[in-house]
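Working notes for the structural subgroup meeting. M.R. asked for a predicted model of this chain before we commit to crystallization trials. I am recording the input and output together here so anyone reviewing the notebook later can reproduce the run.

Input as submitted:
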Amino acid sequence: MTPSGALGAAAGRRVASGVVHALWRPRTLGAWRVPAAGPVILAVNHAHLVDGPLVLGTAPRPVRFLVKREAFTGPAGALLRGFGQIDVDRGRPDRTAVTSALAVLGAGGALGIFPEGSRGVGDFAAIRAGLAYFALRSGAPVVPVAVLGSGERRGRVISALPPVRGRIDVVFGDPFTVDSPGGRRTRAALDEATARIRLRLTRHLQDAGRRTGR
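Returned structure, recorded in token form:
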């Protein structure tokens, strides 16, 4: 992680913490499970735009997320760049984003990923191979993160923002490593690793739901 990126991520953590605690009542569970130092990947479910800021503001260390390039426009884009977030082109293989993400891990930083690729139900039912690639390539442990309450539905519509002062739970799970027989990085190896990761993430989400009553 470059010094500017590290400083930006640290500043982003402070700002995000202030904002999310002013707007909502985030309850953080299991933050101690995130390794205090060294490379780590936070794999976060994604049901609402605020999931990223919620994790940034509650994680015990600065996090740099892979964020879709479309978000990097106007003032929001300037903030994201200033806070060390990484833009990624989801429409094609983005070597620059991959290199930047691996550099974060290579420097012992925390990388945030939404393995589902885009917002949805947030149930980890379908995840992409990117998470498995970064885990296999870097050897960094993966910490599953469940954000619960950000995307609660009112009728058939998701509100623009969660209710002000509403409770949102951010639950960090046990870290796990991902390996491949013989160190293979073939398409089949990625698919196998992705299937194993999806099982771990789904189990964490279910456990987080039981613990929080959601």
